[in-house]
Every structure is written in structure tokens, then in C-alpha cells.
């Protein structure tokens, strides 16, 4: 990895406003941008396939998420499944805040899947039409790559006025921990301050210890506890030495 430039960007905003950067991995990356929200609330109802009510599971970030979908034998893959959301408001004026994590397929898993004719389908957002049929409004909302990470999905201009029900459809192992809906209209003032590093020091550091409060994924990292041994499998081959870049 070659880092050409690093900056710290501080975002000032009103105390009752939240600011979210464009995050989430997509086939076509979005440029840098911010979405501001105020008073985002849990969805009115959330259900998995089969009608299982999972509203409580997506109400807060608490490591409790809809997980009723069937897993494929290949890591990172699952049967195509949907999370259906009743927003309780006009979806055409809403912004969704999807917080979750992804159990990834590794390169070997994708090779195995390709050899058996399978491929990953990124999460698409569909809207329920007046006739009861589902149609795709956004082909790729993005997947959370942090643990956890919030993916912002702006529905304005993407779904018909008066729509209330949408669903997230995918065959990836994505676990949505919280789903909030914001209807404030956004556009709240922000001030961005870009700070250049005064000092950069490249050196050996080690590996931050993995941590988990309940023994389950997703794992976090304890940056105060450093190990010289990596917590993951080391692949055979020649590599550059491990280095950490510390900035002041």
C-alpha cells in the first residue's frame, strides 16, 4: 500500500445534527461527500423472509441483527434474502441509515463460487409498487466495510411519492444491526477544516489485538494491546515488512 497524501478532516455541525460521509463499498465508488440528518428514528417495522418480525433487532446498535437467512457452503455467500422495511413515512423524502457489518468472501471463496456458476449480488434497494410488485430503485447501495459502518441511502427522487415499503435484497452475508430513517430534509450547515500532518513516522509496530464483548463476530481491535504475531493466517510467499505510519 502506497499512501500519497493523508489529511484529517474535522466536521463542525450543530449539536442536534449528525453528519455521515459517503461510506460503503460499491462497484462504482462515490466521491467524498457528507449527508446531514436530524432526528433519525427506527423504522416502523422490519421483517425477514417468511414474515419474521425483526423490528427490535434493527432498532439499535447492539450486536443483535437479522440473521435468519440460510448460509451457502462457500464463505461469504448466502441464499438470496430480503430485509423488508416499513418506514412509517413517505419513503420518497427519506434517507436510510444502514449500520452493519459484512462477513466477507475471500479470494479463494470467489474462485470456488465462480467455478460453480455463482457470483455475489450487492445489496439492491427495491420499492413496493401500488400493484404489490417489487422493482429495483437502487442497484447497489453499498456494503459496510468497517465493523460496524453506516451506509447512507438517499431515497429522494429514487422512489415514487407515497411509498412506504422498501427492501434490501442480496445474497451476501451482510448483517444489518440498526436501520434508521431520516425525513428532516438534510442540508444542515457544516464547516470542514482540513489539517495536514506535521510529522509522519513509518516504523514497525505490530498487530492490534482482536477484541469482542461476546465471543462473536464482528471483532474489534484493542489498539492499546499490541502483539508481534498476526491474529490471522499467514500466506506463503515474499512480502514487504510490516510497517505502521504514525502521524502527528
List how many beta strands DSSP finds.
Answer: 17
Helical percentage: under 10%
β-strand amount = 35-45%
Number of helices: 1
- The first-level CATH class name of the largest domain: Mainly Beta
- Mean pLDDT equals 92
Regions with pLDDT < 50 over 5+ consecutive residues? none
What is the domain tally? Answer: 2
CATH architecture annotation of the largest domain: Sandwich
Strand arrangement within the widest β-sheet reads 5-6-11-8-9
CATH topology of the largest domain: Jelly Rolls
Pairing-aware structural class of the strands and helices?
A: mainly beta
Radius of gyration: 20 Å
For the record, give the distance between the C-alpha atoms at the N and C termini, rounded to a whole number: 20 Å
Question: Can you walk me through this structure?
Answer:
This protein is mainly β. It has two domains: 8-182, Jelly Rolls; 197-247, no CATH class. It is 4% helix and 38% strand. It contains one helix and 17 strands. The protein has one helix spanning 107-115, and strands at 8-12, 18-21, 34-37, 41-42, 45-47, 77-86, 95-102, 124-128, 134-138, 149-154, 165-172, 174-182, 191-195, 200-203, 207-211, 220-227, 244-247. The strands form six sheets. Strands 5-6-11-8-9 form a five-stranded antiparallel beta sheet, with no helix packed on it. Strands 4-12-7-10 form a four-stranded antiparallel beta sheet, with no helix packed on it. Strand 8 and strand 9 (134-138) form a beta hairpin. It is globular. The protein starts with 7 loop residues before the first strand and ends with a strand. The model has no long low-confidence stretch (mean pLDDT 92).
Amino acid at each position: 500500500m502506497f499512501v500519497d497524501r493523508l489529511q484529517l478532516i474535522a466536521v463542525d455541525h450543530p449539536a442536534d445534527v449528525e453528519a455521515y460521509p459517503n461510506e460503503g463499498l460499491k462497484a462504482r465508488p462515490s466521491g467524498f461527500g457528507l449527508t446531514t440528518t436530524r432526528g433519525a428514528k427506527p423504522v416502523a417495522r422490519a421483517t425477514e423472509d417468511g414474515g419474521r418480525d425483526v423490528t427490535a433487532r434493527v432498532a439499535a446498535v447492539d450486536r443483535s441483527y437479522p440473521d435468519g437467512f440460510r448460509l451457502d457452503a462457500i464463505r461469504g455467500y448466502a441464499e438470496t434474502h430480503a430485509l423488508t422495511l416499513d418506514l412509517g413515512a413517505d419513503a420518497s423524502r427519506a434517507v436510510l441509515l444502514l449500520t452493519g457489518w459484512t462477513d466477507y468472501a475471500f479470494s479463494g471463496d470467489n474462485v470456488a463460487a465462480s467455478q460453480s456458476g455463482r457470483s455475489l449480488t450487492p445489496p439492491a434497494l427495491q420499492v413496493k409498487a401500488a400493484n404489490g410488485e417489487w422493482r429495483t430503485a437502487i442497484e447497489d447501495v453499498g456494503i459496510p466495510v468497517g465493523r460496524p459502518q453506516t451506509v447512507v441511502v438517499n431515497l429522494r427522487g429514487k422512489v415514487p411519492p407515497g411509498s412506504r415499503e422498501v427492501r434490501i435484497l442480496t445474497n451476501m452475508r451482510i448483517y444489518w444491526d440498526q436501520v434508521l430513517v431520516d425525513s428532516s430534509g438534510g442540508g444542515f450547515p457544516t464547516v470542514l477544516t482540513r489539517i495536514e500532518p506535521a510529522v509522519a513516522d513509518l516504523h514497525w509496530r505490530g498487530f492490534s489485538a482482536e477484541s469482542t464483548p461476546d465471543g462473536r463476530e464482528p471483532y474489534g481491535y484493542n489498539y492499546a494491546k499490541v502483539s508481534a504475531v498476526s491474529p490471522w493466517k499467514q500466506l506463503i510467499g515474499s512480502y514487504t515488512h510490516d510497517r505502521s505510519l504514525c502521524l502527528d
